[in-house]
């Protein structure tokens, strides 16, 4: 009986894990920008934009150095 419970739990955890891996990889392939920790990641160029102003301007940081300020495309 105990072995049956562990096998069932392992199966459930495996299915949930595969689903999460699929959704994460699918989102990175199909969406150019991803939001995380009040920042925007451009998955095409790898640039990270940090929110700067309410008008939509962002600061670009690469390797901790500020490069320039530009507005994200729509």
TrEMBL record:
Transmembrane segments annotated in the record for this chain: 6-25
Keywords, sorted A to Z: Membrane, Transmembrane, Transmembrane helix
Protein name: Uncharacterized protein
Organism: Pedobacter cryophilus
């Amino acid at each position: 009986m105990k072995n049956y419970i562990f096998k069932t739990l392992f199966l459930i955890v495996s299915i949930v894990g595969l689903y999460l891996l699929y959704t994460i990889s699918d989102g990175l392939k199909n969406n150019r920008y991803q939001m995380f920790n009040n920042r925007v990641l451009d998955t095409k160029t790898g640039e990270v934009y940090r929110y700067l102003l309410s008008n939509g301007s962002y600061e670009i940081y690469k390797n901790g150095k500020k490069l320039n300020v530009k507005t994200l495309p729509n």
